[in-house]
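Figure 6 in text form: structure in, sequence out.
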């Protein structure tokens, strides 16, 4: 079990401290929801969790095989609903892999990316698109 201590610090700002490491991050409400947008919003952190989880799970697969995944990247674009209860409508992850990887390596990394724990745990009402830099796309 991992404990994360969250605290409201006022003016729509919060801090979160990671129990095991002591690392701290800050959040703020987005500007379109009465905040100042001075930091990640809570829903930005969910999008961040998806991007970093994809990279981490691919990094694990690459490390186990002795492959170099340095400079792989993910840009996640988050779209919020415009009507009804405020929620994430979609997450689009643009994934770039190092050019030196073979097609076989890329195929395996695409498969493991689809199995990242964050993606598996997100509600099916959120559309998640993984878009690969080689123009192949997987929409789930």
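Output sequence:
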């Amino acid at each position: 079990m991992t404990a994360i201590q969250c605290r409201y610090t006022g003016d729509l700002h919060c801090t979160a401290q990671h129990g095991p490491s002591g690392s701290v991050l800050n959040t703020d409400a987005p500007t379109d929801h009465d905040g100042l947008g001075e930091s990640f919003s809570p829903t930005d952190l969910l999008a961040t969790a998806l991007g970093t989880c994809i990279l981490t799970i691919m990094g694990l697969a690459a490390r186990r095989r002795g492959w170099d995944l340095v400079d792989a990247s993910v840009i996640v674009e988050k779209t919020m609903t415009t009507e009804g209860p405020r929620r994430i409508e979609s997450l689009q992850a643009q994934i770039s892999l190092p050019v030196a990887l073979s097609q076989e390596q890329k195929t395996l990394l695409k498969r493991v990316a689809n199995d990242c724990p964050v993606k598996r745990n997100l509600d099916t009402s959120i559309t998640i698109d993984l878009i690969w830099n080689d123009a192949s796309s997987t929409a789930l």
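Caption detail: The beta strands are 4-10, 13-18, 24-28, 73-80, 88-96, 127-132, 137-139.
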